[in-house]
Amino acid sequence: MLNAVIDISHHNGGRLDFEKARKAGVIGVIQKATQGEGYVDRTFETNRARVKSAGLLFGAYHFGTGANGISQAQHFLDVISDANETLLVLDYEDNPTGSSMPLEEARAFVTHLQRSTGAWPAFYSGHTIKRALGTTVDPILRNCPFWLAQYGPTPVCPPTWPNWTLWQYTDGGVGPQPHDVAGIGVCDRNFFNGSEVELRHWWTNNHVERKVA
Would you say 18 and 51 are in contact if contact means Cβ atoms under 8 Å apart? Predict the structure, then answer.
C-alpha cells in the first residue's frame, strides 16, 4: 500500500503549500469540484492550478445529492472542462444539508461520465453504499474503481467490489495515524492499493483498464 494521496475541499482553507506536500511524499491530490446541480467549490480552480504547478497528480470529485444524476454529471463535467489526466470521482455519502443521492441517480451519474469521457469514474463511499446495497452486487457501479472510506485498521469492501483501489483511512481526526501532511495540516489521507508506478499509470490513463465488462 502507498500512503500518497490526499483529498481536500474549501474546508481545508485556501493557504495550502503543495510543494511541501510533494516533498513529504504526496503524489496525488483529489479536490472537491461540485455538488448537486449548481454548486462549485470556491477553492477548486485555485487549488487545481497549484497542484499541477507542484507536479502532483490532480483529481476532482462531485458530492452527489438527490437531484437528477445526469444533470449533476454534466454540471461536474462543465466545471472540470478538461478531464485529460484528471481522476474523476463520485462522492456517494449521506448528505447532511439536504436530500441524499439514491442508487438510481448514482448509476445515471457514473454512466453519463463513462459515455462522455470513455472511462468510468472512481466511486467513493463507505457505510452509505454498504447500507444501500447490502449483499447485492451492483452491475453498473462495479465498473467503477472503488474508493473506500473506513476509519479503522482493516478495510472491508462491500460485495460489489472484490477489492479497493483507494482507501481513505482517516479524516484527519478519526482513524489510524498519520493524520497530517506538511504544507496541508490535518486532512483526509488515503492509501493506494499498489506501487507508485501503478498509481501513476492508473491515474493518468483514466483507469480505463480497470473497467469491468
Answer: yes
